[in-house]
Amino acid sequence: DTAVSQTPKYLVTQMGNDKSIKCEQNLGHDTMYWYKQDSKKFLKIMFSYNNKELIINETVPNRFSPKSPDKAHLNLHINSLELGDSAVYFCASSLTGTREDGYTFGSGTRLTVV
Amino acid sequence: GENVEQHPSTLSVQEGDSAVIKCTYSDSASNYFPWYKQELGKGPQLIIDIRSNVGEKKDQRIAVTLNKTAKHFSLHITETQPEDSAVYFCAAASNFGNEKLTFGTGTRLTIIP
Q: Is residue B65's pLDDT more than 90?
């Protein structure tokens, strides 16, 4: 029973396309995050939501738009994809954003823009 | 904002020996320091964490030490096994401002049988 699940696991698309990545957690956590991991394995936060409310928005291009329909879901929509968007995107969740039980990460979505 | 540096970037250790990974952080307000292990094709998984009111924490073969004065913390793995091979990340966070983890750049640990 997967705690944080992301779909799709792999995504290959052409430049200029629009794509979405979905994330769902069944842990009862109320804070969810999107992290980007580049080719050098560097993990950088993009967004976080607490109970459907955006609380962190790092300097991410506005082509990236997160959407949280409820506290168990946080989706990421990317418009006009660029080559530099190629990376692994991780969704994560935590309890009340206090890190008391750490972050639980999904298994990642490998996005390749060609 | 917080900046976390991690060394070394790669580490090869003979099976049974110990491995040490070191991190430094810049924000003196940081008070939570977790370590994550990332296996190939998987997301990072929390293996141990330490808070600033504690200098050392141990969980079986894994231990973490924290020096708040020097702003550095370390992960120690003893009696290494092949399944310890992975990428390890340190991270830091504070109670203040936005709730987020700032990660180090990762250490690829290889255990040589």
A: yes
